[in-house]
Amino acid sequence: MLRGAGVLLHITSLPGGCFVGDLGPEAYKFADSLAYAEQTYWQTLPINHTVPEYENSPYSAVSSYAGDPVLISLELMKRDGLIDSVPQCPPAERADYIKAWEVKRKALEKALKRAGRLSDYRHFKDVTPWLDDYAYYMAMRERFGPWPVWPKEEPPPASLELYKFAQFVFWTQWERFKEYVNSLGIFLIGDLPFYPSLYSVDVWRNKKYFKVGEDGRPLYVAGVPPDYFSATGQLWGNPVYNWEALERDGFKWWVNRLKHAVTVFDYVRLDHFRGYVAYWEVPGGETTAVRGRWAPSPGRRLFEAAAAAVDLGRLIAEDLGYITPEVEALREELGLPGMRVLQFAWDGNPANPHKPHNHVKNAVVYTGTHDNNTAVGWYKEEATARARREFKKYSNCAGEVHWCFIKLAHMSVANVAIVPVQDLLGLGSEARMNRPGTVGGNWKWRLGAQPEPRVWKRLRDVTRTYGR
User: Is the N end or the C end of the chain the one with fewer CB atoms within 10 Å?
Assistant: First the structure.
């Protein structure tokens, strides 16, 4: 990856839109500001179709292929002549996915009546292989609730068509948006969850590739053992893979998933990279992740199968958590950049790999990730007195904590430095995006307004100073 800097901001966190940030004017305005600040990267979270059962977590989507229709911009639909007017939505300080879908569904239903004469829509349906399964799944889910508790009954054709049309509108808007961002000299970094959700078309249509029973219920579920974020580990609930079945089919299902991801984004962060070597599986029915076990994954064999279809140079390894020498060896063998997180650096150990003097060029350094507290929140609420002293002494920080973090990231030898927009603005823990291992309130944070020009100018100055 080119030496450069960037900002982490999920699309749903943008201001404007209707109850949630979307692909409309505010997304383009943010891209313009990144260009002004001479940023090279914009990193987002996964953009797949989310559901209320998982708090609309982008890491528990209903499809690895379908985009989230709440991200559709009504303003752009009007501009394209699909609707005549844009409904007035009251300001929403927190993302409200349910209300956003209610409004956008009505707009899509109106627009669908005009869609019959759109040759581009007909072509989209012809060339999108995953569309029929996705639309059927969503129509069934709408009538009967999440799979696997379904009767054998066909869904109504109208609902099928609505979900197909929503994907056409989403991907039309996304492709234009990505083209515009790239035209500014900015690369989009996305994220590929390691596991799909149980309540997904991926598992429903490909049960043989997962450890699920005849009734579709998981025999084992995914998670991680106790770590920095949780004393009882994290119990994600996703069904784990049947790697033997996947390998018998040449890993085709996984290769297609990777191939799709690198067409959507310029670079793709592989979430939970250690899972490609070994994964933590917990017997179904457990209430915590403590009683799990490590089970082997195919590692190199999977990436060998993918190499013919996927440019591995566009992948980033999320190598955080319990990382073994085998995980490091795979990442190095593949040549993938790993991650360094400055919040993890202050433990009194000079050899800590997250300390800037231990960084390597082939890495992406973050002040914090979407799973961390903000830099200010960490300093005020989570850091021990010893960690605060070490951070201040190491960084020679005499000013604002968040800018001290930003400067440390930018001066790193790591090729890429990414700053969450919350740290750019010096926000506290109220602006946190996610608290791993918790339920309620996650994935809802939004910007109240675009950052002011003085903030972008200051970021540009730091970027220039450290040759990014």
Answer: N
